[in-house]
Amino acid sequence: MSIQLDFRTLSLTLMLFSIVFGLGMFAYAREHAKFSGIKTIGAGYFLIGGGCVLLGLRHFIHDFASVVISNLAIIMGVILIYRGLFRFLGISLRFERWLSPALLVLLAPVLYFYTFHAPDVSMRIQAFSATFAIASFIGACGLLQQPETRSRSVARMLIAMFLTVAAFFIFRVIWSFYDIPPDDFMNAGLLSSLAVLAGEFVVISSSFATIWMASDELQKELSEIARIDPLTGTYNRRAFDEACEIEFSRSLRSGSAFTIIMCDLDHFKKVNDQYGHHIGDQVLRHFADILKDRVRQHDVVARFGGEEFVLLLPNNNTEQGRLVAEQLRAKTAATQIALGRDINLAISASFGVAQYCIGDSEWSAVLHRADNALYEAKKQGRNRVVVSASADQSLEADPAPVK
């Protein structure tokens, strides 16, 4: 038994695609509420599916529903698709706000006129196709404004999709001027069947691209979470190691210096023992905020373990690293953490500074010298900065007094 893929059959197929993908979008949006625009895209699919249902019921329902409402629903569905994509990608297109509604306002009377006052299938085809082409161009123009931080490959795919569909409907408009006017839209020929396939192409491509972009965002978020210490918001040891590997490779190529600072809160165990771990966590967060607020944007601050933190300062020599460490030490020593109405907790920290030296076989050698400098700072009385200038130089204590 052979199946004839006529216009009505293709419309049924597009309707099924639209409903299934629309339900999928709503379910995905429910599970991932952080993404904007996905529900809007799903609503667009439902409108396209509803329009196809009305189209397929031609000759069974009133022409106003099967012609005017159905075509308007399909165009509105396309508008909601690209509006959802714009919201998802954070795109704002000023002219789209008035042009999209204008398309619907202009199309409605044209369809009504050439359906009831001067019935003309060719004119309706031309009006619908021109409107669909303009809507597709709007979608492509908006996606051209897509931020560089997002996946460009997906954006290019969507732009190509919209431009391809727009080109097809422009060709359909031109072809209708030379083609024999059909007596019945349901038998309007190959191009009308291909128009339904173009609708399926829009639904499938946009849904695939949306899920692709959402998956990329989730993957980036998970990757970032895996690199962040949940208590302090600084990087963790794994992220710090990766940053040091990159900076060490760059220093080997260019000969530029970098500095590592290791720091440790003084007498932190006493804080936990006397006030409890919840106060200890509060102290760690305060100290982490001090470190993050006093460094450059491209510097790396990481929690090394327990109350110990480490900083990577690219393009910094020993003296620059010492000045940074001293600023951090002074700021920490001046910090008072309110524990109650009349209780303030004073904290301090010790710092060890070391610079990358030509001849270091690996970045961990710098970290080892910074660790030794930190140990010396603790040994000398805490709340001070000690510098290890090179692998063969002795440790130098900062003259700042112990407080």
Automatic annotation (TrEMBL):
Tell me the GO molecular function terms: diguanylate cyclase activity
- Do the record's keywords include Metal-binding? no
Q: Which UniProt keywords apply?
A: Membrane, Nucleotidyltransferase, Transferase, Transmembrane, Transmembrane helix
Record-linked InterPro entries: Diguanylate_Cyclase, GGDEF_dom, Nucleotide_cyclase, Rev_trsase/Diguanyl_cyclase
Give the EC class as a word: transferase
What reaction does this enzyme carry out catalytically? 2 GTP = 3',3'-c-di-GMP + 2 diphosphate
Q: Report domain GGDEF positions.
A: 256-390
* Membrane-crossing segments per the record: 12-29, 41-61, 67-86, 98-115, 127-145, 157-178, 190-214
Enzyme Commission designation: 2.7.7.65
Question: Does Plastid count among this protein's keywords?
Answer: no
Q: What cofactor does its activity depend on?
A: Mg(2+)
| Stored NCBIfam families | GGDEF
**What is this protein's name?**
diguanylate cyclase
